[in-house]
């Protein structure tokens, strides 16, 4: 960015553009910097990919080389719009007295709204266009300099506010994700690119509390969750949430909550109203013997058949009105970058976002077991599953040896080949089956075209469907190329599997996969 104090601005021209005039310059490259000031009407303009609502008082500053589009949207320029285009040149004065041309003024694109004072100045400048008296030209130049100063001051104010908002958002997000670490005010300030004192001041202005007060609130929220739902000791909980000193944690907890951690835990332990906003995590809870108080659930998902008293919140978007008046203890959900969504959930109940990637399902089960106070049940379930998978692995090894297996899903969006995640975690991991060529390099799944099927040819193929419609589709595909040319189809070793049972990345689905594999491949 050019140094503002060394800049000189020279007015070149002012034009009054109606809708026709704006359309005539649509998409043309600006040969010099320009200010666009809307005097009447409204519409939506585009600068590159940036959509900009424009109305009376809107001001747009663009640099040389930029392109403005005013007609490529249903909400584009109205026929009543009138805008002033003020073209100018920017010069930079060097220390040695030389002057050179500059193309940009501060940020490359500045949009300001409700700047009515500039409409008045633009009208005055336009009224004096063509006047040749030196004093008139000087007056016009002073008005123009006043206009440029107003734009740069307003833009700087907007930028400072944006910087402050970004600094607070960046550091609060860091605290939410890394509260278990040792975090200092100086570390947060450095992250924001500010001095510690200035950072603390803007943080408190925007949130009403200091950064460390905010961090302690986050830690106390997680402490209450762990005290309510886990069997961890107070000392372990203190370490888990970022306190090295158990006694300091206990003192802070009592100051904030009004009861010691031990008393709080004793009073809260019986409560177990858990809401799951993930069908996968609902499967984990069910494996632990915990029926969620409320959950999202697809009608076709088999786990739904095992829910007896659970309140259904919907299929994909939760309807919280169904539990608005209930005393919820905990919400489980996927980890999200949407901080506002997490804040809204935390207002309902302490919310525990669990990352779906890159955690694998065993870690999900252990984490949810810890949250629900079912650590022992989680280990018992895993031990039982591992014994079952080991037995199945031995049976399958005797049946198919090292023959390769491909997992291909038929869906509305096309074909997908699965790799090492989800179903592949069971087949290629727990059951130690040999993946099809190329499948071992796929993390989760890969969308493919029919012509690419041969690249994943294998001795066996599991075709994942979701009901009778897929079964009919599969029967038709068997008899036409390229499907009929696949090794597994020619050997009659292609099997249709129930995607409703196999689709969940959770203990119950994985146990069903093991059962189905034994049924399909060992029972003839």
From TrEMBL:
UniProt xrefs under InterPro entries: ABC_transptr_periplasmic_BD, Bact_iron-sidero_bind, Homeodomain-like_sf, HTH_AraC, HTH_AraC-typ_CS
Domain Fe/B12 periplasmic-binding residue range list: 273-524
Record has Transcription as a keyword: yes
UniProt domain HTH araC/xylS-type: residue ranges: 169-267
SMART domains: HTH_ARAC
Record key words, sorted: DNA-binding, Signal, Transcription, Transcription regulation, Transport
Compartments, as annotated in UniProt: Cell envelope
Keyword Transport: yes
Annotated family: Belongs to the bacterial solute-binding protein 8 family.
PANTHER family: FE(3+) DICITRATE-BINDING PERIPLASMIC PROTEIN (PTHR30532:SF29), IRON III DICITRATE-BINDING PERIPLASMIC PROTEIN (PTHR30532)
Protein's recorded name: Helix-turn-helix domain-containing protein
Native source organism of the sequence: Cohnella cellulosilytica
């Amino acid at each position: 960015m050019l140094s503002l104090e060394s800049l000189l601005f020279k007015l070149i021209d002012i034009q009054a553009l109606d809708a026709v005039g704006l359309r005539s310059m649509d998409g043309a490259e600006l040969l010099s910097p320009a200010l666009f000031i809307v005097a009447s009407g409204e519409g939506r303009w585009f600068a590159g990919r940036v959509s900009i609502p424009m109305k009376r008082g809107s001001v747009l500053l663009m640099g040389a080389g930029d392109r403005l589009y005013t007609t490529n949207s249903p909400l584009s320029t109205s026929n009543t719009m009138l805008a002033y285009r003020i073209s100018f040149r920017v010069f930079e004065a060097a220390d040695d007295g030389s002057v050179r041309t500059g193309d940009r003024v501060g940020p490359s694109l500045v949009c300001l709204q409700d700047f009515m004072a500039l409409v008045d100045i633009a009208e005055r400048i336009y009224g004096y266009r063509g006047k040749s008296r030196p004093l008139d030209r000087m007056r016009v130049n002073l008005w123009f300099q006043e206009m440029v100063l107003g734009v740069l001051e307003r833009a700087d104010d907007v930028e400072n506010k944006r910087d402050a908002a970004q600094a607070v958002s960046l550091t609060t997000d860091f605290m939410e994700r890394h509260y278990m670490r040792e975090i200092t005010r100086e570390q947060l300030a450095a992250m924001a690119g500010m001095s510690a004192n200035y950072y603390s001041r803007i943080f408190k202005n925007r949130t009403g509390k200091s950064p460390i007060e905010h961090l302690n609130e986050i830690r106390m929220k997680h402490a209450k969750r762990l005290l309510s739902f886990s069997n961890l000791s107070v000392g372990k909980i203190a370490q888990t949430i970022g306190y090295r000193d158990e006694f300091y944690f206990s003192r802070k907890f009592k100051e904030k909550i009004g009861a010691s951690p031990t008393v709080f835990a004793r009073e809260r332990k019986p409560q177990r109203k858990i809401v799951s906003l993930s069908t996968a995590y609902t499967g984990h809870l069910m494996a632990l013997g915990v029926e969620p108080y409320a959950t999202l659930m697809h009608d076709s998902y088999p786990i739904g058949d095992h829910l007896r008293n659970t309140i259904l919140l919907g299929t994909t978007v939760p309807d919280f009105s169904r539990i608005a008046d209930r005393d919820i203890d905990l919400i489980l959900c996927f980890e999200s970058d949407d901080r506002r969504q997490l804040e809204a959930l935390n207002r309902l109940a302490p919310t525990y976002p669990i990352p779906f990637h890159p955690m694998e399902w065993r870690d999900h089960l252990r984490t949810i077991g810890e949250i629900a106070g079912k650590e022992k049940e989680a280990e018992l379930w895993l031990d039982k599953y591992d014994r079952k998978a080991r037995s199945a692995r031995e049976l399958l090894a005797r049946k198919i040896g090292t023959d390769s297996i491909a997992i291909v899903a038929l869906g509305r969006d096309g074909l997908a080949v699965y790799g090492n995640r989800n179903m592949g975690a069971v087949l290629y991991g727990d059951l130690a089956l040999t993946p099809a060529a190329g499948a071992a390099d796929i993390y989760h799944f890969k969308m493919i075209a029919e012509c690419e099927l041969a690249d994943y040819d294998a001795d066996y193929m599991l075709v994942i469907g979701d009901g009778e419609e897929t079964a009919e589709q599969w029967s038709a595909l068997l008899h036409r190329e390229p499907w009929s040319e696949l090794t597994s189809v020619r050997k009659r070793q292609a099997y249709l599997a129930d995607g409703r049972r196999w689709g969940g990345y959770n203990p119950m689905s994985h146990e069903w996969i093991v059962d189905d594999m034994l049924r399909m491949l060992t029972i003839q």
